Amino acid sequence: MRILVTGGVRSGKSSHAEALVGDGPATYVAAGPSPDVETDPDWGARVAAHRARRPASWKTLETQDLATAIREGIDPVLVDCLGTWLTAVVDEADAWEQDNDTVHDLVSARVDEVVETLRDSSLDVVLVTNEVGLGVVPEHRSGRLFRDLLGTVNQRVAAACDEVHLVVAGRVLRL
To answer: Which class for 64: exposed (0-12), middle (13-18), buried (19 or more C-beta within 10 A)?
Structure first.
């Protein structure tokens, strides 16, 4: 079973995804950069709170290589979050200032790999993402680029999943 869980910031989407995975052995994939607590203490506190509530039986990986994490994970696998992963992918390529087509091609190649791995995997995988249609996106080039890229990532990953769950104010709608 492959499930994409989406919602706005602080919607309860990560808590819902964690409940789907349960308390048994699992792989938690922190899909983006580790927080720099000194420069962003709020982000560091949020990540620390997430770490503290995970069951001890979960193996945690902090990686941008989602395909390998899914292939080598302990069933089930929880990937949190595609938005931070996308940011890390574009940052790693130093691509925010490149032309839009170049950035879209770069991201598309990485998404292809994730989607192919999802389709081939026999593991249960739950992926968490932000629903960009529900969030405030800064009206500058990078903000628009991020919104457009994440919207495409979400659509492509959703197409490879068996279910999509939208979480709003802690309430779940199965789409």
So the answer is: buried
- What is the distance between the alpha carbons of residues 91 and 145, in angstroms, rounded to a whole number? 13
The predicted-structure confidence for 39-89, as pLDDT tens digits, reads as follows 778 877 877 787 888 899 999 998 999 999 999 999 999 999 999 999 999
> Which one from 50, 104, 140, 165 is the annotated catalytic residue?
50
Domain count, the chain: 1
Told to judge if 16 belongs to the known catalytic residues of this protein, a careful annotator would answer no
Contact assessment for residue 149 and residue 86, using Cβ atoms and an 8 Å cutoff: yes
Count of alpha carbons within 13 Å of 147, Cβ hemisphere only?
14
Is 92 within the bounds of a domain? yes
- Determine the structural domain holding residue 134 and report its residue range: 8-12+22-174
Measured distance CA(166)–CA(154) in Å, rounded: 12
Query: Is 81 within the bounds of a domain?
Result: yes
Return the number of other C-beta atoms located less than 10 Å from residue 157's C-beta.
Answer: 23
The answer to whether position 17 is within a domain reads no
Supply the CATH number for residue 147's domain.
Answer: 3.40.50.300
Residue 3 lies in a domain: no
